[in-house]
Amino acid sequence: MHTRRLVKRSILGSRVYAPSPTGDGAPVTGVVQAVKQENRDVSAAGTRRSVYTVLMQDGSLKEFSEEEIAAGFNHTAAKAPLKSSLKHSSSNGAPEGQKMEGGCLSPEAVEEQRLADGKRLSRDPDTRSVSLLEQKRKVVSSSIDVPHARRSEEEVDMDKVTAAMVLTSLSTSPLVRSPPVKVSEALSGSWKDNGSAGPFTPSSNSSSGGYWSWSAPSDQSNPSTPSPPLSADSFKPFRVPSLGGVGPGPAGPEDPSLDEQDGSSLLFDEPIPRKRKNSMKVMFKCLWKNCGKVLSTAAGIQRHIRTIHLGRNCDSDCSDGEEDFYYTEIKLNTDSVAEGLSSLSPVSPSVLSPPPPPPSPLPPLGQLPDSHRPQQPPDTKEPHAGGTTPLSRSAPSALYLIHTDHAYQATAPVSIPSSGSNLAGSACTSFTPTNSSSFSISWQSPPVTFTGNTVSPSKSQGFGEQRSQTIAVLSSPPRATTALSRKVRGEGKKCRKVYGMENRDMWCTACRWKKACQRFTD
DNA sequence: TTTGCCGGGCG
DNA sequence: CGCCCGGCAAA
Asked: Residues in domain C2H2-type (predicted)?
């Protein structure tokens, strides 16, 4: 049925008709950039009204109430009125009145969206073509957009852990009220291609009308464009390795709409990743079952997924965008530390993904821990990040893993290596709870880890260790005994849960056949 | 009630 | 075989 194609998605980015500001009566179209709820006046009571911040064709932003705009999206987007799941998510916790559109930016929400939308979009470019064209022509300098995570810089004060906890607990991150200017801007701290500043939603609320931070024009979102794959390659040349970014795949994911197309899009589909100021850096983490690979570029992670997990050899062009579902972005707080090296601080992972490690048995492990773990230095460093690097690196590890397409299952049994793990593990677990309950997608634990000093050394050494461990594990009698009777029922997420009935076509075959899931094994 | 998936049917 | 679904049982 066609029903499967419908997915709930947010309206952010959706094209809507709104009353003409000029008063001439002719409706104008705009793109929803943010949604916020105003329930302040009414206090807790009920009516909470949603106010949509719409980016008009002329580049201006206006706010409209629900009644004022008509949904006229041409694409599948929200069919229903304008309300989105975002609302829910945002409303859940934050007591503070300022949630504004916020919720949407929470990682979970984003993730959700990307899951739901991403793939589909990329698959049917046609649907959006019209809007894309239109959008292209309107060049909006600020392509704001919503989707992503809004980053805030408030963390300056707090250390990463604190920040993570806060974010986690609130699930919505408050936009900062005042844009701090952060220091590191100049430096290279880290760019992030996405979200850093949040979509600036207008500030929301009461006070100002909003200023969004221009500084981040960006796009956070990346690729909204439907046509995913190619882009990666195409821009590779320009964008330096470092960013790689977002490429291809991700594209679809985030927000359905456009966003970025605007400005930068002219050249390439994606926005140019600019270095973002804060101390945050964006990394892309493989969500494949036991793989926690983290790469600094989207292109790299996609390639990793495509080749390692999906078993595809072709280049990005043959990708159908599926990779998008297997990785997520994580923001790292590089602040003082470091830039460098280590990279993955536990923090970020926790925020985004709660790794509910319910499955007690195996920790994170990564298949190729070492390789990833070593992390990729800041974006800048790895030149080839986009392409080769990941592959080449991962390669070795691949040996250990078995796998082919279905690596997923094979790897399961292994346990994680050491070093980083403890940290990571503990960290994760501790915060995770919060998120995990809420949702999703991150079913795997982040192998990532740590930060610290050990960086390079650990790499080599770690590698060895791990490898040995891994092997041992594998050799040991794998699952074996369990047999008998039913398979016990996996506790982890399964395709059905992850993709939902609507996207049944995205399920692994086994799930489709109602057989034991091969993709998300437990 | 939902969800994973076994067992079995059909082409 | 590939594909699908009835229906059981765990959650």
From this structure: 284-314
